[in-house]
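Hello Y.,

Per our agreement to keep a running log of every chain we model this quarter, I'm adding this entry. I've kept the format consistent with earlier entries: sequence first, then predicted structure.
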Amino acid sequence: MDFSHVETVASRLEVLPESASTNAALRALSADADAWPHLSVVLTDNQTAGRGRLDRTWQTPAGSALAISVLIRDLPSRSEAIGWIPLVAGLAMADAVTVQLAGHDVGVKWPNDVLVDDRKICGILAESTGTAVVLGSGVNTAMTADQLPVPTATSFAVLQRPCDEIRLVVDYLRRLDGLLSALVAWEDSDRSGIHAAVSARCATLGREVDVTRADGSALHGTATRLDADGRLCVEASGKEHVIAAGDVVHAALA
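Predicted structure for the entry above:
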């Protein structure tokens, strides 16, 4: 597939016939800041050793999913604002997916998994290089029902919608660039509109959730809001708990 049109949005594009991990590839390339500027992209439809949050790994059949990694060099100076970057990526991808899946319910499970009709179609992993952030996304495009990794996943093919991969990447990058530019300009999630936009797309809010925190402790409650730093607030037993990191599972809808 000819991804050359993506170059109208990306500052540099590298399409790989195969990659163990596009995030790892882009992290290695990012050492050369002149050659790999802000909004550089590495992508492939054959990622052989993908990684996700909490060091989860997976394999996907060649041609069944699109792996996209984006290099973010223009960062907010405030650490509180930087924490919103993974959530912004989830919002940008959800918006891009919505363009092609009109009529379906597209949302983001905190912090950045993209859901369609409450099933995962895309996972996102943000990794810091020290001076930049690499945002990796894995989108289930042509994956069949038999190829889905878990029963709670889905794909464009399962939804019987062909995925225009070029449009998906272009829409994602344009939305991501616009959101990040606003975050950098305002240095504040509220004044930039990021807090409201992410909250509106967050399918976790208002849901009963089970949370496994980084220390291994478990929590069951209702996700009520995102705080100023993008952390998930969960009410349990009359007390609000603030979740900065952890594994969140939505309770089944009635």
